[in-house]
Amino acid sequence: MAEQRERSEWARTSSLLALIANVHRDPKKTRAFKPGDFDPFTKRTGRSDMMELKTLFTGAKPPAARTTSDDRSEH
Fold it and tell me: Is residue 69 part of a domain?
């Protein structure tokens, strides 16, 4: 019950923060903010890098990681 109340309070607070941020932003330079940008409880989706997408669409295996002398620990 306490967690739901905290989520509810953050939803209200993040809506107000998004409103204030959108009032003071330059529409030509930045995108509009959403309440989820300020809410710590919203799930953020991770972005895939290009190698993962290439592997997914072409079926090619990613190149093996190279080992260099920099990887060895110094004694």
Answer: no
